[in-house]
Write a structure and sequence with these properties.
Blueprint lengths: L6 H13 L7 H13 L4 H14 L9 E8 L5 E9 L2 E8 L2 H9 L1 H10 L3 E9 L3
Parallel strand pairs: 3-4
Antiparallel strand pairs: 1-2, 2-3
Length: 135
């Protein structure tokens, strides 16, 4: 289906797709996957199939994948905090699990400040939780 349209047209569109970094769907995203095949010709088969598969799936799934960060921070020999943060679109999800209720209460006091800082970056705190290991 792709090859009858002509290699010259795909190369022209592929250079536009590279400038857009493949962020847009449609023709530029399609041609970007084609330029990827041309640049990596030794691996064109597996890469081309994988990229083509993503192009087929992307229009059906309008949501962006959840970007997630999980940290286990050792504060001292006996204290640690587990941090779980996720971002999807402009929604931020954050969760803390810690040893002491005092740290939990302190973390809750900073939620308004966190919301304000996120709003400066066009993000919104959708969910925040702070728990102790016993909860």
């Amino acid at each position: 289906v792709m090859k009858p349209s002509g290699d010259g047209d795909l190369q022209g569109l592929g250079s536009e797709g590279n400038h857009e970094s493949g962020l847009q769907s449609g023709l530029s995203g399609f041609s970007h996957s084609q330029s990827g095949q041309q640049q990596a010709s030794p691996h064109a088969g597996p890469m081309g199939n994988g990229i083509r598969h993503q192009e087929e799936v992307t229009p059906e799934l309008p949501t962006q994948p959840l970007q997630r960060l999980q940290l286990d921070v050792q504060i001292s020999e006996t204290q640690r905090v587990q941090i779980d943060v996720g971002v999807q679109h402009r929604q931020v999800y954050a969760g803390l699990v810690m040893d002491q209720a005092a740290l939990k209460n302190l973390a809750m006091q900073f939620v308004p400040q966190l919301e304000e800082q996120l709003s400066h970056h066009n993000l919104e705190l959708d969910q925040f939780s702070a728990e102790t290991w016993e909860d």
